[in-house]
């Protein structure tokens, strides 16, 4: 969801301006079905890196992709997950199409120097945060023209996203939240890199201090490291906070969750540009996060971030938001203003349009 929401926002804004998408998926899913319903051409297959040891399958896949490019008169092949680029670069080169690659993770030197080397260098390599770009510079081939390196950032269709909100009070009742409690939430994959144990520790500390808070964890199948989740459940039992630290599962849409909580926390050790944080801010939810990756660029105020692993600092920031409803409301409103000005679909799409038109040498339409 986090990697497709920004592309979906770009498409929705640019289609009336002349963009004609043709999609290629490795599997069917909710977003793909919504595109089919809108009349967008969708194709399905696998992405296998061509290999001389598997010559016939490699030739067949390259021919299939090249035929799609020619048949649909595709000008730009936009590879939204950079690890798939080696599987399509031969077809791109054979047809003379232009290539745009978006990186949703840091670029490692071995992969980058191999995948993006001449003569397969994409016409644009798009990064989602300045921090990601700086960390990834050693992964870019030395002879890659610097003008092909782009800072796209990320975003979502905020008005469409927040329309999915529903019954805040009803949801809180369903989750067993007392009317006078402050709800702290985290929405993420249940993976070790997300450090949900820090979130649980914050909730436990606040409860020991006598504050009436409830912690909610949104996340579940299929994005679960089961041994890690078992450790988290054991931590909740040890802290004796099972009555106020709860799992609510993988939610789609997730807007109702953010609308129903009061404070969001992100304790991950790395975020390129967190869509979850943008979604919380779009719902006027103040948040606190670790100052890793693109997080300092995502928040509206440096107050919202603390050094990675500083659970004391994380707790202190959340305490202030719990104790001061006026400050909490002010920070939430400021967060919404910032995310709309920086990461809303029209802003993101305008940046993408500029990149498309630069490599095309002409307007979209």
Which short descriptors sum up this protein?
single chain, 365 residues, alpha/beta, 6-stranded parallel beta sheet, 4-stranded parallel beta sheet, 16 helices, 12 strands, 46% helix, 14% strand, elongated
List the helices and strands and how they pair.
Layout lengths: L1 H13 L7 E4 L4 H8 L3 E4 L10 H17 L4 E4 L5 H11 L2 E5 L6 H7 L8 E4 L2 H7 L12 E3 L6 H5 L5 H7 L7 E6 L8 H13 L4 E6 L7 H14 L5 E5 L5 H6 L2 E4 L8 H8 L4 E4 L4 H4 L6 E2 L4 H13 L1 H19 L1 H16 L5
Parallel strand pairs: 1-2, 3-4, 4-5, 5-6, 7-8, 7-10, 8-9, 10-11, 11-12
Helix pairs in contact: 1-16, 3-4, 9-10, 9-14, 15-16
Structure report:
The protein is built from 16 helices and twelve strands. With 365 residues, it is an alpha/beta fold. The strands form three sheets. The chain has a six-stranded parallel sheet with strand order 9-8-7-10-11-12, sandwiched between helices. The protein has a four-stranded parallel sheet with strand order 3-4-5-6, sandwiched between helices. The chain has a two-stranded parallel ribbon with strand order 1-2. Strand 5 (124-127), helix 6 (130-136) and strand 6 (149-151) form a beta-alpha-beta unit. The longest helix is centred in the last third of the chain and has 19 residues, at 325-343.
């Amino acid at each position: 969801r986090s990697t497709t929401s920004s592309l979906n926002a770009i498409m929705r804004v640019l289609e009336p301006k002349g963009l004609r998408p043709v999609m290629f998926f490795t599997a069917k899913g909710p977003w793909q079905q919504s595109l089919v319903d809108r009349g967008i051409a969708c194709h399905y297959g696998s992405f296998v890196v061509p290999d001389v040891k598997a010559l016939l399958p490699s030739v067949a896949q390259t021919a299939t992709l090249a035929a799609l490019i020619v048949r649909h008169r595709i000008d730009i092949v936009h590879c939204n997950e950079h690890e798939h680029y080696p599987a399509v670069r031969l077809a791109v080169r054979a047809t003379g199409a232009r290539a745009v690659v978006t990186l949703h993770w840091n670029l490692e030197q071995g992969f980058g120097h191999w995948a993006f080397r001449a003569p397969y260098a994409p016409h644009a390599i798009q990064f989602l945060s300045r921090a990601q770009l700086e960390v990834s510079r050693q992964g870019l081939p030395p002879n890659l023209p610097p003008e092909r390196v782009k800072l796209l950032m990320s975003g979502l269709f905020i008005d469409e996203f927040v329309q999915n909100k529903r019954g805040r009070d009803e949801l809180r009742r369903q989750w067993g939240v007392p009317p006078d409690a402050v709800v702290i939430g985290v929405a993420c994959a249940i993976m070790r890199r997300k450090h949900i144990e820090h979130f649980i520790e914050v909730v436990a500390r606040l409860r020991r201090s006598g504050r009436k808070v409830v912690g909610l964890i949104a996340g579940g199948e299929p994005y679960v490291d089961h041994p890690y989740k078992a450790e988290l459940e054991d931590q909740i039992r040890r802290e004796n906070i099972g009555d106020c630290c709860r799992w609510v599962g993988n939610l789609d849409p997730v807007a109702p969750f953010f609308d129903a909580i009061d404070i969001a926390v992100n304790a991950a050790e790395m975020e390129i540009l967190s869509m979850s944080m943008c979604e919380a801010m779009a719902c006027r939810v103040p948040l606190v996060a670790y100052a890793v990756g693109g997080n300092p660029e995502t928040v509206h105020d440096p107050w919202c971030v603390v050094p990675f692993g500083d659970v004391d600092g994380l707790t202190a920031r959340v305490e202030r938001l719990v104790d001061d409803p006026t400050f909490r409301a002010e920070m939430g409103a400021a967060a919404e203003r910032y995310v709309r000005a920086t990461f809303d679909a029209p802003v993101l799409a305008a940046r993408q349009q500029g990149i498309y038109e630069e490599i095309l040498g002409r307007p979209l339409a």
